[in-house]
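#structure-requests
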Amino acid sequence: MKRRPIIAGNWKMFKTRDEALQFIYAVSNKLPSKDLVDSVVCAQFTVLRCLVKRQGENLRIGAQNMHYLDEGAYTGEVSAPMLKAIDVSYVIIGHSERRAMFNETDETVNKKLHKAFEYDLTPILCIGETLEEREKGITEKVLAKQLELDLKDLTKDQVKELVIAYEPIWAIGTGRTATSEVANDACGFIRSKIVEMYDEETAALVRIQYGGSVKTSNIDELMSMPEIDGALIGGASLKADDFIKLVESAVNNKAEKV
């Protein structure tokens, strides 16, 4: 089945409003058609609205996190209805930095996924193993457990719309990148697990990204892999010219899937 590739930039805690606007003006009229690739920028809360207003036809804006409740006494948090009210399209859920630094658990990830779908936000679910877990040979066990807990009680139709980002934790922000074969094998395992949990149709439709020190120098090789449908990209997504090149690579290498 056809899967439209998706390239998502994760800006993390970078860019002021002026810097974000400079970026959006530089890319908004240069990105490939949304019929060929989904181009997404996941930005910090302070600039989401100004980016949405200027996103143009071929770019969509996402948040980097959200709470699993609609409202409440949760200082510093942002809710799904708040994101929906400003026309945000995507939200990253369960990024390894959120799990490691802010006590995100598979239980809260699951709650957030359900809430995202309730408000028609497309979640980008991040999963991945540590270096220690990979060296112990338990990568597949770790990924399987994360999927079982994170996707609990999600329907087939919801999972079909989900984006899964395989992010080996040892490759995030370290300059180390999983080889294209290692990344492809992990994404293939994730797809096989979706078959086991749901069915072949669901697994054939869910899009699986790779994330972890992706840059313009390795994007072509990664995008040439059959199980990798896109990338979740940190630092390399901060420069407008590089972001355009990353998106164009997905189109050039995945044309047969469109």
